Amino acid sequence: MTDTSTARPRSGRLPRSARKAQLLEVALEVFVEQGYHAASMDEIAERAGVSKPVLYQHFPGKLDLYLALLESSCDTVVAGVREALASTTDNRRRVRATIELWYDYVAGQGAAFRLVFESDLTNDPAVRAQLDRVTAESAAAIAEVIGEDTGLAEDAAHLLAVGLVGLGHVSARNWLDTRSSVSREDAVQLIAGLAWRGIGGFPKPSSPDPT
Prior knowledge:
73% of the residues lie in helices and 0% in strands. It is mainly α. The radius of gyration is 21 Å and the shape is elongated.
């Protein structure tokens, strides 16, 4: 006989969008806990309280589910960068808001953060494309502001933007992974100060003399 003492009750009917969101939430837990290769659709369905056919109605396979989850997480990061840039017209505050985004993301969205930056499936072209998109789209948004405010050539502005993205997410990851004694607030202050001392050295071009 099968031991059903730990079996989870089946979920009731949900609208398709709500069910998809629920499945993604559960899948995130499983993928982060076990990694892509060890995770199984059986366990995801069981944790979600649905049958496997229901899970497959939404996601034809494990890779499809993983990519949907990865795309959602990447969208969250890129949208956050854009919101940080749009939050103020003061460039020093923009730098801080962007750095703060990375620290808030790794501290508050630890599971999703590990899915994006510590995937064990980076050799898959579709996965790699999503991971690269985080840097590319974040840098593109930052480069646009740099170009407008400094008059630098597009490639130069892009290179600086990529550097700022790396500074933000690499330092935030290290801060989290090493369980640094530096508080989140102090870490943001330190890294934002470092970034501003660099990017702030590129002044706005002078306005043409109206005469």
